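Researcher: I'd like a candidate sequence for this fold, 203 residues long. If you have to choose between options at a position, lean toward the conservative one.
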């Protein structure tokens, strides 16, 4: 129903943003919402997937059309719902994820939250050979990246930890990497989150 929404970014929370368009505030669930911190109170364009369930109508948002395409491929797999799809999207090594699918690397895929051996097998079975068409766009997007404004203090770290919790990581997992994150002084929420996800994926 919706391809994208352009509006003013008014709210950023660990699991979602609010985008105001013509006086209506749309709650849009995203992976790593804090990477949009620099765009707060500015006009942005967010690509959206419109999900209709018996008990809810939800919007899932992405900075890039390529990310939306990958998400929509993921949720077609049995056992992967929108929440699991966002958790996979939260680690922005999307080209690495696609490579794992093509190489049938079950161990790598099981490092994502909510992905066990059975689900990893389904990902490989259902997606192998079907993601290659978006690989060039995904790799280009990851190389170009988005700049993050440096921030001081513990605020960005707290926001990153909230985002990890929203993505389904346990307190035990977060506590294990928190000392390392605390040594990264004066950085942004997005940078904290990227580093945290990188460490959690290596567990």
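Model: Candidate sequence:
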């Amino acid at each position: 129903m919706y391809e994208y929404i352009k509006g003013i970014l008014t709210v950023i929370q660990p699991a979602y943003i609010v985008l105001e368009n013509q006086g209506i505030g749309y709650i849009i669930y995203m992976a790593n919402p804090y990477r949009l911190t620099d765009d707060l109170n500015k006009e942005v364009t967010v690509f959206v997937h419109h999900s209709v369930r018996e008990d809810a109508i939800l919007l899932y948002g992405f900075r890039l059309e390529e990310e939306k395409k990958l998400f929509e491929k993921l949720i077609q797999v049995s056992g992967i719902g929108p929440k699991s799809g966002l958790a996979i999207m939260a680690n922005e090594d999307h080209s690495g994820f696609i490579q794992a699918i093509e190489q049938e690397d079950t161990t790598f895929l099981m490092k994502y939250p909510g992905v066990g051996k059975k689900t990893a097998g389904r990902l490989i079975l259902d997606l192998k050979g079907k993601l290659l068409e978006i690989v060039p766009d995904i790799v280009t997007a990851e190389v170009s990246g988005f700049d993050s404004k440096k921030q001081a203090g513990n605020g960005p770290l707290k926001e990153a930890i909230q985002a990890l919790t929203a993505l389904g990581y346990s307190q035990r997992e977060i506590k294990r990497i928190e000392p390392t994150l605390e040594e990264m002084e004066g950085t942004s929420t997005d940078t904290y989150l990227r580093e945290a996800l990188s460490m959690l994926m290596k567990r």
